[in-house]
């Protein structure tokens, strides 16, 4: 099988080379636009008022961007509507003015939403600012016709928009008979840039225009399926004499919480005295390119509950995204091919300190925190992972350095977890990304780990104080052009590799994957379809097979923002315990979604149907896991997010098919945004599992269920000046088949960001 996979990868490489050497078609050459000259930002003396109107005299001499391209669904085609962007600055702020013409203003989609909740189902404009001039990563500032904000970062290394980071900036917007307009005021203290008299920034402006199709309008000619986005940004000239340093943000907070916990009888709750907590976050920028963060007794509570995920028949631990502010400065630096940094492993910090910055082409960050413990440690294995309680308090340290080399880079990563008493995990290694051409990316990483387990066999059987070393490596090649997509991956993880500061749920394996696909234009409801094949192979270092699968896939795009992927997996083989389980045919769906309209703004389907292993008992099975997500906006102020996940599995016993388990999660989130600052949110989630105990090798409950509910009132002046009042209720089903309370909480939080 491995030889066949090697042949597959070799053929993919040859095909990519052929497609790269092929001359562009006359149609492609004719449609290639002429690049715009640099955009020049104008320094102004009278600052415009931020009210959404562009009538201030300060805008008269501002730099102008009037040429836009439809980059989706068309490829650098003339846009269906006109867009104009104005850029100016003074000693403290960068100003962006936006004018979006619309022949049907009544069709503008702009519901009231929470911060960072402007989606691609709504009208918006995003400004990507590459303030380092490396054409690799950017700050993203997004505004909609209500003046509401979404912000974050974008990195070409991963191709991901990360909306977890938040920044201080102002915005306003107005809707009129010609369309809508907006203004942004972005403090230079929010941005990170080099300490040079003349700046070398770049900028990309993207308008989202969702109607019958979701139109993407860019200020630069971004091709379809680009291997990078910020690399296409246009130069932003004229920025001189920007402020040097000295910005300080002090954000103290106070929180009060009253908990109710179960009594000994298990049927009622005991009210505990209210507990208060206070702390402070501090951010100081000693230079324009460097930020120092410190926190004491930080409040890392989760205001938003984690998205429900069924884990009944999973082999490996589930990943949850990071949302806590302290860890999000320069977050793109910590993203590497092997996820050796996963800051949620620092579960309960007592204090933390961090420095992040960039000198010339070198970016760096160093983070140190004391973790009080109380969470879980992922213990990886070749076919499954386990969770063990954290052995106690620890010191976590993470260091990262990256050197940019044009569109390529090389980096070093260090992580360390020192447990109180005995035990540690230390990881050190290098990574790189090489861009040999406009359509190719080659990346890799090598890590070495040194681990000493805590002497706590009472927490986990393998923790007996032993010490071991290991390594992990990955190499990846991706080719993307207008027609062809190829991907090849090779991973090699040692049996004893550990990354306790990261998320590595599998170790002791070798992995090869190959993908080859072709994209073709379609007509009617479909505008484009990518279709291809793939093969995946996992084995132990000894050669013992863990998993093998090959299949076909199709990824359509089309009307009403239709997108997603459908896979047909043929002849999958999985090692479960000590045997190979065969799954002849499985249909898998990944994020197949469509945006029907303004009220029912999105429906999304994910999951599988067909043959699937019974990982718990080590045998073949067949079933399905269907997750349906829908977003409804019945009014401009109310948003309803519905999530429903149903999973079941049948197994063959004595020639008969019997239901092993049925699991489901039902979740409803209702958010009423009264304006851009004030909201009320209610979340209700019910999860249940029904099992057939006679079909399990070990004792299991016949039925389990839980309910969680929460209500939150929030008022935000900015992302760190907030008032939250919340209530939470947790219940679990008892043997008497009733949902008994297991906990309640009422809390109040007030924080304020003082800036100088």
Instruction: Profile the largest sheet.
Output: 24 strands, antiparallel, barrel
Q: What is the beta-strand fraction?
A: over 45%
Helix content: under 10%
Enumerate the spans where pLDDT stays under 50 for 5 or more consecutive residues.
Answer: 1-35, 302-319
> N- to C-terminal separation?
63 Å
Give average pLDDT, whole number: 87
Rg on CA atoms, Å: 27 Å
CATH architecture tag of the domain at 33-237: Sandwich
Structural class, by secondary structure, is mainly beta
Task: Give the overall silhouette.
Answer: globular
Q: Helix count? A: 2
Tell how many strands the DSSP assignment holds.
43
CATH topology of the domain at 33-237: Immunoglobulin-like
Overview of the molecule:
The protein has 756 residues and is mostly beta strands. Among the domains are: 1-32 and 510-599, no CATH class; 33-237, Immunoglobulin-like, CATH 2.60.40.1190; 314-507, no CATH class. The chain is built from two helices and 43 strands. The chain has a 24-stranded antiparallel barrel. Strands 1, 4, 7, 8, 9, 10, 13, 14 and 15 form a nine-stranded mixed sheet that branches. Strands 2, 3, 5, 6, 11 and 12 form a six-stranded mixed sheet that branches. A hairpin with a 4-residue loop joins strand 25 (408-419) and strand 26. The longest helix has 20 residues, at 2-21. The chain starts with a helix and ends with a strand.
């Amino acid at each position: 099988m491995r030889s066949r996979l090697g042949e597959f990868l070799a053929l993919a490489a040859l095909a990519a080379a052929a497609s790269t050497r092929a001359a562009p078609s006359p149609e492609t050459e004719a449609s290639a636009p002429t690049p715009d000259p640099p955009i020049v930002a104008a320094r102004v003396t009278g600052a415009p008022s931020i009210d959404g109107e562009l009538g201030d005299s300060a805008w008269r001499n501002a730099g102008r961007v009037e040429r836009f391209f439809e980059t989706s669904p068309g490829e650098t085609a003339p846009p269906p509507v006109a867009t104009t962007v104005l850029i100016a600055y003074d000693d403290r702020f960068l100003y962006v003015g936006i004018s979006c013409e619309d022949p049907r203003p009544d069709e503008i989609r702009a519901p009231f939403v929470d911060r960072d909740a402007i989606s691609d189902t709504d009208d918006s404009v995003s400004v990507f600012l590459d303030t380092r001039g490396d054409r690799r990563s950017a700050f993203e500032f997004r505004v909609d016709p209500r003046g509401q904000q979404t912000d974050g970062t974008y990195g070409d290394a991963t191709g991901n928009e990360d909306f977890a980071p938040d920044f201080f900036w102002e915005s306003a917007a107005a809707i009129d008979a010609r369309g809508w307009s907006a203004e942004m005021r972005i403090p230079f203290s929010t941005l990170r840039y080099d300490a040079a008299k003349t700046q070398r920034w770049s900028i990309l402006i993207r308008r989202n225009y969702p109607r019958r199709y979701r139109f993407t309008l860019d200020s630069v000619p971004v091709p379809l399926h680009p291997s990078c986005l910020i690399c296409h940004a246009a130069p932003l000239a004229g920025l001189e004499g920007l402020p040097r340093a000295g910005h300080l943000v002090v954000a103290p907070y106070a929180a009060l919480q009253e908990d109710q916990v179960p009594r000994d009888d298990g049927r009622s709750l005991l009210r505990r005295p209210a507990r208060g907590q206070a702390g402070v976050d501090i951010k100081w920028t000693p230079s324009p390119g460097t930020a120092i963060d410190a926190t004491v007794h930080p409040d890392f509570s989760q205001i938003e509950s984690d998205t429900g995920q069924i884990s009944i028949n999973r082999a490996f631990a589930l990943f949850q995204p990071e949302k806590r502010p302290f860890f999000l400065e320069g977050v793109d630096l910590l993203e590497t091919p092997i996820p050796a940094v996963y800051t949620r492993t620092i579960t309960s910090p007592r204090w933390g300190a961090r420095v992040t910055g960039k000198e010339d082409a070198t970016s760096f960050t160093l983070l140190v925190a004391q973790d009080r413990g109380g969470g879980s440690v992922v213990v990886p294995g070749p076919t499954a992972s386990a969770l063990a309680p954290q052995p106690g308090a620890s010191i976590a340290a993470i260091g990262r350095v990256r050197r940019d080399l044009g569109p390529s880079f090389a980096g070093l990563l260090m992580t360390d977890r020192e447990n109180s008493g005995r035990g540690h995990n230390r990881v050190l290694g290098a990574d790189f990304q090489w861009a040999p051409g406009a359509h190719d990316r080659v990346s890799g990483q090598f890590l070495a780990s040194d681990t000493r387990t805590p002497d706590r066999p009472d927490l986990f059987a393998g923790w007996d104080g032993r010490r071991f070393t290991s390594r992990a490596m990955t190499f990846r090649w991706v080719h993307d052009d207008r027609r062809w997509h190829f991907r090849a991956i090779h991973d090699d993880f040692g049996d004893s590799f550990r990354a306790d500061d990261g998320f590595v749920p599998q170790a002791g394996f070798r992995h090869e994957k190959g993908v080859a696909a072709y994209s073709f234009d379609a007509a009617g409801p479909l505008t484009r379809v990518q279709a291809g094949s793939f093969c995946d192979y996992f084995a132990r270092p000894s050669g013992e097979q863990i998993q093998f699968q090959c299949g076909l896939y199709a990824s359509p795009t089309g009307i009403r923002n239709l997108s997603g992927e459908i896979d047909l997996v043929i002849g999958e083989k999985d090692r479960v315990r000590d045997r190979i389980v065969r799954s002849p045919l499985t249909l898998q769906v990944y994020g197949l979604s469509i945006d029907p309209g303004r009220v029912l703004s999105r429906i999304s389907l994910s999951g599988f149907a067909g043959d699937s292993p019974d990982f718990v008992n080590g045998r073949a099975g067949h079933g399905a896991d269907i997750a349906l997500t829908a977003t409804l906006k019945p009014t401009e102020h109310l948003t309803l997010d519905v999530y429903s996940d149903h999973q079941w599995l049948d197994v063959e016993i004595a020639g008969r098919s019997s239901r092993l388990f049925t699991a489901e999660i039902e979740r409803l989130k209702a958010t009423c945004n009264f304006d851009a600052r004030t909201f009320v949110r209610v979340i209700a989630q019910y999860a249940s599992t029904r099992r057939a105990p006679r079909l399990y090798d070990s004792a299991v409950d016949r039925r389990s269920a839980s309910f969680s509910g929460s209500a939150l009132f929030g008022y935000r002046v900015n992302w760190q000046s907030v008032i939250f009042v919340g209530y939470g209720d947790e219940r679990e089903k008892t043997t008497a088949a009733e949902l008994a309370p297991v906990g309640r909480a009422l809390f109040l939080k007030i924080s304020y960001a003082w800036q100088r």
